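G.,

No rush on this.
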Amino acid sequence: MHIVCVTVKVKPGMGDDFLKAIQENRAATRHEPGNIRFDILLSAEAAGVDDPEEYLLFEVYKTREDFTAHQQTAHYLKFRDTVAEMMAEPRKGAHYTVVEADPL
């Protein structure tokens, strides 16, 4: 399995638009044959009105190649372009392989 964790900080006031875009991307991604899981997590830390919202995208694919294929899909490219101006800072992605885990 190939795990991707992406931290996204969204500009204040753009959270609703970001959430709509990521939910559309997630729904389409879940139909990809190589995708096993795609969770959208919102930071539970108390943030002020002027602070960016922080999301964690937790994505699980059968292989790294499946993730690479995901990045070429029309729905991902649409998402990427739609949210580009919503970012408070560049998103940060980290890739992992499973060492030990409970079954998904």
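When you get to it, here's the other one too:
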Amino acid sequence: MTKVIVRNGNVESALRTFKQKNVKSGLLKEARERQEGYMKPGVKRRKAKQEAIKNSRRKNRRERNYN
């Protein structure tokens, strides 16, 4: 469970921090995957491969923009 402390009544920054921590922990993504139910091993493998391709393209795009 993700916890965030609100300091000086600054709820906006606490909410931003909360969202970032949730993305890093992968909690929402895991909940969505569980909601879909059982996936056959081959389907799971294809989905993981597509995700890896998407992430590598995103990483390459970011590296090109910074260089």
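The mean pLDDT is 91. The chain has three helices and no strands.

Enjoy the weekend,
O.
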